[in-house]
Specification:
The complex is a heterodimer of chains A (about 240) and B (about 425). Chain A has about 240 residues and is an alpha/beta fold. In chain A, about 40% of the residues lie in helices and about 30% in strands. In chain B, about 25% of the residues lie in helices and about 40% in strands. The chains are: A alpha/beta (about 240), B alpha/beta (about 425).
């Protein structure tokens, strides 16, 4: 589904990714681990098309297409989803209204009929149960005044509604207490499917107790240094990133 | 440049000499106003009030007095179905009974100014004075018609009164100088929506003067919707006097016109009076809009609140000049003023200028102004969910504007304004 080859990228002027190669198959959950500054978040930003990051070499092929040639909205419509490490607050834009617009933009792209307000409300209420989001948060402006945990759950709610084929979770565990971590992980696990790939970016092994990966990749100084199965994460927990 | 302004001035003096006999009443006063205008001429950038608003484009055309030959049927589509229970309409500056439904509750008077001057000039006289500003002088000399709204003591009008100024397409540039007078008796309550509308292509000058007098304990909610033709020039001078314990709320929604210039003066002249001034201007292309507001706290225990927001795209220009005066007498004044601007393009420009003149010592006054751009992180967040760039911008502009739109009480007007904002920002 996703093939990253020899990816070089800069954040601002600083080279961060230095020849990263990675293949992700449909149905797989891959964990990307690594120390601070290894390039984990840069990888997430480059894959989602954020400004300020420049690809200087290499390629990213997603479902046979050149991902890097697409605008952020085109990527999203093609099924790429980024769960943000720091979700932004959007005063004045209602959570439900925003998500309905997003889903309908994606459905339109897929050639599906757009959902009306009534149909969408039914859908979002059902999905909200999955991540235990209070209905009162649905009518509030996007993330405005949400707690850290509520923001992260709201990200997973969006993922549940938009049903991406490639989900990138950027440090979704950061700032979560153990209860919130459990709820978020349950939400993510319920979205695992044979047609969907997930890239779970995390600094700590803790998250991987809840979201058990099929593959673990260790990112260091802009390249994949080691790859293995879930046992690798446990080993890193004991030995640390420096060997 | 001096020859140009002199020429333009002479043209209007000649117009006045030609039509003066056909104008209703106030012959002496009109002559005085015109003589004063002939002395002063059109404003120049040397005067502080006009430093950032260039009126040269107005003087480059000759806006002849509207002949009143417009065929109102061209607005049939606009008025059909939109005719409100209480509505008075003016087409090209003249009362249009066909588009007016004056099903008036007891204690409410809504009439054409030309009619009132004939039947009861003493009602109008206190509000017609020789002013100082050039455009007001022109209005005073040349006004022909407008609306007179009178709400009696203790009367509550439960539906909004709609006043429409429609300007049609003509071959030549033309001018209208409508006047509007609103008076509320003791403890009266009313809401008024006045709309200035003109089709694209209309080249005209609409130069309005509005006065409102709020007796003790009364309450007026006044909404101005300005959607003039993109080729039109719009000027309005509003003067409001608020009595003891009375409350005035104003919403200025400025979307149209090539040049729109507003002078809003509110005097809190009775103890415990209140005013809230809200404004939203959204301009693009070569549009220019200015708001000069003065809130005069003349008596103790008065409260004023002011929030103006602007969205500028293209090479548009805006001016917000907010003056608050607190007189020596006006102890325990509370005044708050905020101006926020969103610049969509790099070429747009806004001048924001708060002025507090405080002569009392026991007061609470705050002001603030911001100029910003759409938040790049928020735009990216929306796009990362599949929302296209144009739609993402539209969502954010609407979110910014909604704080003002939501203050408009009449549902139909609020949703109409929301629709306009959506249309305008969708293009960017």
């Amino acid at each position: 589904m996703l093939e990253i080859k020899n990816l070089h990228a800069t954040a601002g002027d600083k080279p961060v990714l230095k020849g990263l190669t990675l293949t992700v198959k449909a149905g797989e959950v891959s964990a990307i681990m690594g120390p601070n500054g290894s390039g984990k978040s840069t990888l997430a930003h480059v894959l989602s098309g954020r400004d300020g990051f420049k690809v200087t070499d290499g390629s990213v092929t997603y479902k046979g297409k050149d991902l890097l040639a697409m605008s952020p909205e085109e990527r999203a419509r093609e099924g790429v989803f980024l769960a943000f490490q720091y979700p932004v607050e959007i005063p004045g834009v209602g959570n439900t209204y925003f998500l309905k617009n997003a889903l309908n933009a994606i459905r339109k792209h897929r050639g599906q009929a757009e959902l009306d307000a009534h149909e969408f409300l039914k859908l979002i209420k059902e999905k909200a149960k999955l991540v235990q989001i209070a209905e009162s948060l649905l009518s509030r402006p996007v993330n405005e005044g949400f707690s850290g945990g509520e923001k992260k759950r709201n990200e997973i709610l969006q993922m549940a509604v938009l049903e991406p084929t490639l989900a990138i979770l950027d440090e979704t565990d950061s700032g979560l207490d153990i209860d919130a971590l459990r709820i978020v992980s349950q939400g993510v696990n319920s979205l695992r499917s044979k047609d969907r790939a997930m890239l779970v970016i995390t600094h700590y092994q803790r998250l991987l107790n809840y979201i058990v990966p099929d593959r673990v990749h260790v990112l260091k100084d802009g390249v994949i240094e080691r790859s293995g199965d879930k046992e690798l994460a446990l080993e890193l927990e004991k030995t640390g990133y420096s060997r | 440049m001096d020859t140009l302004t002199t020429d333009a001035r002479d043209l209007y003096v000649a117009d006045f000499d030609r039509v003066a006999k056909t104008l209703p009443g106030f012959a002496d006063l009109r002559r005085k106003a015109m003589a004063r205008f002939a002395e002063k001429g059109f404003p120049t950038g040397r005067e502080e009030r006009w430093r950032f608003t260039d009126t040269t484009p107005v003087t480059e055309l000759h806006f002849k007095p509207a002949a009143g030959t417009a065929n109102p049927s061209q607005f049939a589509g606009l008025a059909a179905g939109a005719l409100k229970a209480l509505q008075i309409t003016f087409v090209d500056g003249r009362f249009a009974p066909a588009f007016s439904t004056l099903d008036l509750p007891a204690g409410v008077g809504v009439a054409s100014l030309a009619d009132v001057i004939k039947s009861a000039p003493e009602v109008v006289a206190p509000f017609v004075l020789v002013p100082e500003e050039p455009f007001e002088l022109l209005n005073t000399a040349l006004f022909r018609d407008g609306a007179v709204l009178r709400i009696g003591d203790g009367v509550t009008v439960d539906r909004p009164i709609h006043v429409l100024f429609l300007s049609s397409l003509h071959g030549e540039p033309y001018a209208m100088h409508p006047r509007m007078m609103i008076s509320l008796g003791r403890d009266a309550r009313a809401s008024v929506v006045k709309s200035y509308l003109g089709p694209s292509g209309g080249t005209y000058l609409l130069n309005a003067v509005t006065t409102a007098a709020l007796a003790d304990g009364s309450s007026l909610d006044l909404t101005k919707v300005q959607r003039e033709s993109p080729q039109a020039f719009h000027f309005e001078s509003l003067d409001v006097r608020v009595g003891r314990g009375a409350a005035f709320t104003h919403h200025s929604i400025s979307l149209g016109a090539r040049l729109a210039s507003n002078d809003f003066d509110v005097t809190l002249e009775g103890e415990g009076a209140e005013c809230s001034l809200f404004g939203l201007y959204e301009v693009a292309g070569q549009q220019h809009v200015d708001h000069h507001t003065t809130i005069d706290h003349a008596k103790p225990n008065c409260t004023s609140r002011e929030l103006y927001k602007g969205v500028l795209d293209g090479r548009a220009r805006a001016v917000f000049d907010g003056r608050i005066i607190v007189r020596p007498d006006a102890q325990k004044t509370s005044a708050m003023q905020t101006n926020k601007n969103l610049l969509i393009s790099k070429e747009a420009l806004v001048h924001t200028k708060p002025q507090l003149e405080i002569f009392a010592n026991d007061v609470k006054c705050k002001h603030g102004a911001t100029i910003g751009q759409l938040d790049a992180d928020v735009l990216f967040y929306l796009r990362s969910r599949g929302i296209g760039l144009a739609e993402a911008r539209r969502l954010l502009i609407h979110a910014f504007a909604s704080e003002i739109i939501d203050t408009v009480k009449a549902d139909a007007v609020r949703s109409q304004i929301g629709g306009c904002i959506a249309l305008i920002s969708g293009g960017g």
